[in-house]
Amino acid sequence: MKNGPQLPSEDVATLLAALVSDAARVQSVSLTCGTVWIKRHGDKGRRMIVAVQNATARLLRLPFMRASPAQTAEGMVERDLRRIAKFSQAGVPTASVIYSSGRAIVLSDIAPTVHGQLRSLRPTDPAAHDQLLVYCCGELGRLHAVGLCHGRPYPRDMFIKNERLGFIDFEEEPEAVMPMETAQARDLWLFFLQLSDRAADRRKTQDLAYGAWVAAAPQAAIGELRKLTHSMGRFLWLARLIGRIHMGRDLRQFILATTYLTTMFNG
């Protein structure tokens, strides 16, 4: 095996068999050294999705909604590996790369994810649940302070190691199509979509989380968030109108997060 730590021969055989015998995009494999995850990349339909998203961003004049560059499966693997290395070099926890091939990466297990922790805490300890959301927002600010962004900072792509927030799934690379500070502002907005819908005590958690991010984030990113919020705020009236007919989860998240951030900047 290449790229990662040496595995016992029996684990190598098990892993190679899994790589060639299954086509699932994400697959867990139990080895003597523990669980590892196979992540397979494909490019079917990706270019069309990117084209539609970019056309929409241009039409609505929302440059921060531009899609990351379309890549082949091999290019997606290379992007994943490159960004894992960049985060590791900056001291940000990530999964370890055990092996990589043209279309797949084998990664170490990072369980539990923040998503899993939030699901456990929500019914038993709402205060700790909300504190975890605030912690993640502060850690996102620390990530931005060292000149990085994630691109899709959802709780399912986060974990905690040695009291630091770690990240996985680096499929997005927004800094390739927009300034870093814009990508960082988008990170915060995307995380607030999740936080505003999940929080048990919404307004208190929003206030604390935003304050935690601002305390660590670069001033340039805060300035870009103001612009982003102003642009997205133009669509709140339409979102609320649609919500009277059908309030889906995505629409609810958009309204809750964007309303709060708009209020923060407009007083």
UniProtKB/TrEMBL annotation:
SUPFAM superfamilies: Protein kinase-like (PK-like). InterPro entries: Kinase-like_dom_sf. This is Serine/threonine protein phosphatase.
